[in-house]
Design goal:
By secondary structure, the chain is mainly α. The protein has one domain (11-101). It has helices spanning 11-14, 16-20, 66-75, 80-101, and strands spanning 43-45, 52-54. The termini are far apart.
Length: 103
């Protein structure tokens, strides 16, 4: 989807416990994904390349897929470009939260 490229920073997965509270009821099975630190238990660091990767990427839930969520937002009347702007701002915010926590 144009307008958003994941930087693989892991910000959303590092704060999954906060995000899970916002998920709809159909995402209930994901509520057990957070570990004791609030990170997604499937998040893996990539020391050689930097950043993070998902251990269950190919089987990750739909709500972890930008294109799926963007389609759902479009069904609600939110244009893809507007949704991409929201995601970019959310990523920036989550990165700032993580930077402050990891200081």
């Amino acid at each position: 989807m144009a307008g958003f490229t994941c930087q693989r920073c892991g910000a959303c997965c590092l704060t999954v416990q906060r995000i899970v509270a916002l998920l709809p009821p159909e995402a209930q099975e994901f509520h057990g994904a957070a570990d004791n630190d609030g990170r997604c238990q499937y998040l893996r660091e990539r020391p050689a390349e930097g950043g993070y990767e998902c251990a269950v990427y190919d089987q990750r839930p739909n709500y972890c897929r930008f294109s799926w969520v963007a389609k759902k937002m479009q069904e609600l009347g939110i244009e893809p470009s507007a949704f991409a702007r929201i995601v970019r701002k959310t990523c920036e915010h989550l990165r700032r939260i993580n930077d402050n926590v990891n200081v």
